[in-house]
């Protein structure tokens, strides 16, 4: 089997979405503005990727009101599982090169 063949993933094959998921994997949840700042994305670009991830069931998006209204993004169990599986495939592919 070709070492890179397992890397096709409709959602996580995109480097921005993979970056978002890896960031959330390490934290569990993060504010929209935090993700935007860390990954250096425009609000529209981040919003588009988050909608794709939410539609796939990999994240949840909530509006919370603390000192001010915020958008909080939280990784789901499915998101955790699929991200770890994709990372394992990446590791295997790199080892196979």
UniProtKB/TrEMBL annotation:
Top-level division of the source organism's lineage: Archaea
Annotated Winged helix DNA-binding domain residues: 16-92
UniProt cross-references to CDD domains, sorted A to Z: HTH_ARSR
Pfam short name (any one): HTH_34
Name by which UniProt lists this protein: Winged helix DNA-binding domain-containing protein
